[in-house]
């Protein structure tokens, strides 16, 4: 019972925080709300017997990635960018267009939920089979079955590092 | 215990919220944040299915997704900073020309 309540609390807070990320005008608040959303999703991971992913979510996502975003927001120092006056003349600002967009978004939710409800075995409880996600099991699988993907990831990070430094460090005038 | 379907529905709602953010907002940083919301929704699906099947592969894929998300955010934010230096704007509609 308590577990069910916690699930609804975590998922409700995650959805509300994510929605507020979208509707917040100031990107600084958006980033901080996204940190809250990540914390709630991390609680869901704990409920799914994935403590390693839960901690990684906090450390890597909320700790490192969001700090990177915060740095970018503070560096650019442009809180309410999309409230400019020429923004009001944008064709997508027309009420008809906006209504179509909201309708398409709602349609996406309906489609996804409908598709999910049509799949079988959804009523089975999660977390009954297997031994869960101990760090030992994750490490063994990652370095045996997924060793190549792991090595390829290091190349990806190197490329991202070089690309990020090159793009952000470019001289003015070109 | 919580049924698998509930996790999937939460994930679907989060994904829809993220995609709505990409389409609605015209601030490059908020668009990147919405992409992160979508990636997290997919991660939740992976972990839920992996736990349901009793394997750890789902969690390993999530670890890789987190790595790719970090790389994507680093390069994306660098591009945003470079664009901002050119145009003094974060609105993607300000960047309509391929060369200036």
Q: What this model shows, in words?
A:
The complex is a heterodimer of chains A (174) and B (100). By secondary structure, chain A is mainly alpha-helical. Chain A has helices at residues 2-23, 27-47, 51-76, 95-118, 135-144, 147-168. The radius of gyration of chain A is 21 Å and the shape is globular. In chain B, 53% of the residues are buried. Chain B is elongated, with a radius of gyration of 17 Å. Chain B has helices at 4-24, 28-53, 57-87. Chain B has 100 residues and is mainly alpha-helical. The longest helix of chain B is centred in the last third of the chain and has 31 residues, at 57-87. At the A-B interface, helix 1, helix 2, helix 3, helix 4 and helix 5 of A face helix 1, helix 2 and helix 3 of B.
List how many beta strands of chain B DSSP finds.
0
Quote the average pLDDT of chain B. 87
Q: β content of chain A, as a range?
A: under 5%
Structural class of chain A: mainly alpha
Low-confidence stretches of chain B: none
Biggest interface goes to:
A-B, 86 and 72 residues
Query: Helical content of chain B, roughly?
Result: over 70%
Summarize the main sheet of chain B: none
Strand content of chain B: under 5%
Radius of gyration of chain B: 17 Å
How would you describe the shape of chain A?
globular
Helix coverage percent of chain A? over 70%
> What's the mean pLDDT score of chain A?
83
**Low-confidence runs of chain A:** none
Please name the defining characteristics of this protein.
heterodimer, A: 174 residues, globular, B: 100 residues, mainly alpha
At a glance:
The complex is a heterodimer of chains A (174) and B (100). Chain A has 174 residues and is an all-alpha fold.
